[in-house]
Structures are given as C-alpha cells and as structure tokens.
C-alpha cells in the first residue's frame, strides 16, 4: 500500500505534537515537527542577541544554520519528548521548549526569507512520503498535495491549560492567565502574519479536540488515513 503524506496544522497547544507522534507510531511513519525547526532558529537568534524582527540578518542566520530532527531515545520519549532537535550539530531538545523561545520562533516565523529556507528543509525531510508532519502551513505551503490534511483545533482556554500543565511538570513558574495571554498573542501573530498565516486548507479535515483525548483523536486520524490509502489504491488499480 502506498504510504501517505499526512499534514497536521493547528494553533499552539492544540495537541498537534502528541497526535502526530501517535499517528506516526501506529502507522509506522516518520514524525516531523516543523515548529521545532522554527524554535531552534529562534534559540540561535536569542543567543546571538538578535531580538528585533530585522529580516535580512535573520534570513542570513537561517541560511547558515543546520537543523536536524531525529527520533527520541526511549528515556526522552518517556519524558514526553517527541523529536530530538539538533542545532548546528548540538542537541537543543530541551532548550527550545520555553515560552521565550516559542515567542522568538513565532516572531522569526513572520519573515518570508526565513520561511523559504525552513520550508525547503521540511520538503526535503518529508520527500519520500510515509510522514506525519505538523506545523502551521504544512497543508497549505509545505505539502499542498498531501493526501491527508488535518486542521486540529481546541478552545484557547483548553490549549492554555495544556501548556500550563506542561510548564508545571517542568517546574516553570507561570500562572494560567499568563500562559493564556501568551497563547492568544501567539495565535494572533500566527494567524495574522502576511506570509503563510495559519489557515485551514480548503481540503483539510477540521478536528476539534477540546473534549477528546490524544488516543481518541489518533484513532480518528488513523481511520481517515486507512480510508485515504484505500481510495488511492482503488484509483491506481482503475488507472492501471
Ligand atoms: O508548533 P510550535 O508551537 O512549536 O511552533 C513554534 C512557532 O513556530 C509558532 O508560534 C509559529 C512557528 N511555526 C510556523 O510559523 N510554521 C510552522 N510550520 C511551524 C511553526
């Protein structure tokens, strides 16, 4: 059976990572987190003191950066890490999961030339099919011909609560209202930016998981994948 390219897009805290990772596990596909690439570059920009949104130097920074995603060790998987992230060959899996880095990622993600560099990387990484890639523009820009597109959403309050719990588990001292405010600010930036804003692709299936857990959502997406696989196999046999 031909392996699919599955695109999962949605706002911060919608549960994309957990869902994409679980679907990839069940189907035996590769899981790729495009947001981790923006975060890694955001971390590099922060470390270099590049906190403005001055596009040319940031695009230059992106062109001179090597970002790699690898599967996690069992220990990292158990600790909730779904991808290992390497920035210029140094692991930054943990360092990129702070609100400061998320904000820097969301800011640099507004720059068209930065996106060109990272989108090309993402297209290379997923070129063989058999991948579940999550992000904001996977179904619209990175893989517009993906055979299955999911737009995952949940209420801002539920998304903020999920993020807040993650922070609590790590011992971060952030209040729920602070996280909710940051989620709303990031939503606004991601949805309103000029280049590749977060929008639902016309052919994406909208899944609202406000009241669904990861396992239920994953089962639904796996079922949709199996249907797509069957449809494609039937179309291929008719054509052949
Ligand atoms: O998925 P995430 O929260 O780790 O992503 C961090 C930021 O990166 C997010 O605020 C917007 C940006 N991003 C993007 O613009 N396009 C993607 N495909 C993935 C992430």
Keyword list:
alpha/beta; Rossmann fold; 240 residues; single chain; 14% strand; globular; binds 2'-deoxycytidine-5'-monophosphate; 3-stranded antiparallel beta sheet
Summarize the structure.
The protein contains ten helices and eight strands. With about 240 residues, it is an alpha/beta fold.
The CATH architecture of the largest domain:
3-Layer(aba) Sandwich
- Provide the succession of SSEs: EHEHHEHEEHHEHEHHEH
CATH class of the largest domain: Alpha Beta
Q: What portion of residues belong to β-strands?
A: 5-15%
Quote the distance from N terminus to C terminus.
Answer: 15 Å
How much helix, percentage-wise, in residues? 40-55%
Name the CATH homologous superfamily of the largest domain: P-loop containing nucleotide triphosphate hydrolases
Structure write-up:
This protein is α/β, with parallel strands linked by helices. It has helices spanning 16-27, 34-47, 55-63, 74-78, 99-108, 112-125, 138-142, 156-170, 176-192, 214-239, and strands at residues 5-9, 30-33, 67-70, 84-87, 90-91, 131-135, 148-153, 205-208. The protein has two domains: 1-16 and 133-240, P-loop containing nucleotide triphosphate hydrolases (Rossmann fold, 3-Layer(aba) Sandwich), CATH 3.40.50.300; 30-128, Rossmann fold. The chain contains ten helices and eight strands. The strands form two sheets. Strands 2-6-1-7-8 form a five-stranded parallel sheet. A three-stranded antiparallel sheet has the order 3-4-5, with helices on one face. A hairpin with a 2-residue loop joins strand 4 (84-87) and strand 5. Helix 2 (34-47) packs across helix 5 and helix 5 (99-108) packs parallel to helix 9 (176-192). The longest helix is centred in the C-terminal third of the chain and has 26 residues, at 214-239. The model has no long low-confidence stretch (mean pLDDT 93). The chain binds 2'-deoxycytidine-5'-monophosphate (DC).
